[in-house]
Structures are given as structure tokens and as C-alpha cells.
Amino acid sequence: MENNNKNKQLVEFLNNVASFYRKDTSEFFFDVWVRCLANYDMETIRKAFDSYATNPDASGFMPSTNEILREIVGTSTDSSELAWGKALKAIGRAGKSNDVVFDDALIHVVVEDMGGWIKFCSVTDGDVPFQRLQFIKSYQAYRNKHGEFPEYPRALTGTSNLYNAANGFRCALPQFIGDPDKASLVFKNGGEGGGLRVSKPSLKFATLLLAKSNEVAA
User: Fold this and answer.
1) Among candidates 89, 81, 94, which has minimal Cα distance to 135?
2) Cα 73–Cα 79–Cα 214 angle in degrees, nearest 5
3) CA 79-214-112 angle, 5° bins
4) Which residues of 28-59 are buried (b: 16+ CB within 10 A; e: fewer)?
5) Distance CA 36, CA 71 (A)
6) d(CA 25, CA 31)
7) Cβ of 10: how many Cβ atoms within 10 Å?
8) How far apart are CA 85 and CA 88, in angstroms?
9) Distance CA 169, CA 16 (A)
10) Alpha carbon distance 130, 206 (integer Å)
């Protein structure tokens, strides 16, 4: 029901935009746009169109889906460098012993591809340049799919909870990296992974997570 309401709002919004740019529309037109923007909320979409409209370098014609997606996520190079910096800083602040939840689900996907959080944190200084290149290449590849990427672990598992889970002990809450509200959504929408099975959080647990987790600044 929520998706239907959002799609209805999006179609109405796109119809107004197309009218402003004197662009003909069709069922196919709306279908393409709805599918391309399915992963973003209406506020984000409106801001992207506003940014395009006020860009003096824009063509003045109805923007393409790629142009709006670039407004939303930036270039893949910019986004990947920012994500790498956030992940690298988290190594120093959270360490490999703690579970972490980033405010960017794509970081979870990439780190898991690279062997998981513990391995990611264990890189030597000499290997950091190679790890950076691998991270950025993978991040850009996923980002270019415009939000379409595999299921990711809701938390990246550290050594402490890996031991706790294996021995039947209570697992500690993860640390949030970056914006705590966005990180909460990443946690809520994620799946099992990283060697630690975590059931889908209840509202009570999600509230506790927000209140008590030690946020690590981005």
C-alpha cells in the first residue's frame, strides 16, 4: 500500500514536470521513471529535480533518468571516494572487534564482497592502496546499477559478536557509522550475513538500537 501511494505521488509529480518541460508522456514513460526511482523517497526525488532545474549547465529540456540519478547519488567516483573514506575512518574508530552498521547499505555489500568486516579491518598499511582500489572499483560497479544490488547483511560482524554467537552468549549492539537514522534503516532492511544470524528486529529493539548504540561519526 505504501509503495502504491508513493508511485501515485511520483506519477503525478512527473506529469507536472513533463508539463513544465512540454514533454509528451505515455504509460511507458511513467513505467521507466517509476522503476528507476523506486529506491528513493519523494523528498529526495523532488530535491534532485530542483537541483537540475537550478543548474545553469543543464540543457533546459526534460532531464533523463540518468541525469536525475546523478543528481541523487553524485558521480560514482565521488560517491565511492566518500564511502571509502567513511569505511577507513570506521576501522580506526570502531575497530574489528565491534559490529558496525553504516548509513550506506552499499558499503555493507562491498565489504562483504571483500571478505567481511574482520578481514577488511585486518589490512596492513602496505596493502591499504590496493584495498582502496578494490573497494572503489566494486562500489562504482554496484552504484552504476542505480541502487540494484544484492541482499546485504544488516550489520557487519566484528570478532566479539562472532565469538559470542558461536558460544551462545548475548551479542552486543552494533555501532552506527554516520547518520543514525539512515543507519537504522540500513539495519532494518538488511538480511542475515557476516557469520551472525540476526532475526528481523522488532520496533522495540530498533528503538533500543537507536537509543543505546554508540554512534561513530562519519
Assistant:
1) 81
2) 100
3) 45
4) ebbeebbebbeebeeeebeebbeebeeeeeee
5) 13
6) 10
7) 20
8) 5
9) 56
10) 36
Q: Among candidates 115, 179, 191, 106, which has minimal Cα distance to 142?
A: 106
In whole angstroms, give the CA distance from residue 200 to residue 172. 16
pLDDT at 205 > cutoff 50: no
Residue showing cell 557509522: 177
48 neighbors 54 (Cβ within 8 angstroms) = no
Of 117, 203, 204, nearest to 152 by C-alpha is 117
For 108, the enclosing helix (H) or strand (E) is: helix 105-113
More confidently predicted of 199 and 154: 154
**Confidence band of 147 (pLDDT split at 50, 70, 90):** low
Distance, in Å, from the CA atom of 37 to the CA atom of 35, rounded to the nearest integer, reads 6
The secondary element (H helix, E strand) that includes residue 81 is: helix 76-93
pLDDT band at 74 (very low <50, low <70, confident <90, very high): low
Cell of 186: 540500513
**pLDDT greater than 70 at residue 209:** no
The enclosing H or E element of 101 equals strand 100-102
DSSP letters, 143-210, are HTTTT-----BSSB--HHHHHHHHTTPPPPPPEEES-HHHHHHHHHH-BSBTTB--PPPPHHHHHHHH
Total residue length of the chain: 218
Quote the longest CA-to-CA distance of the chain: 64
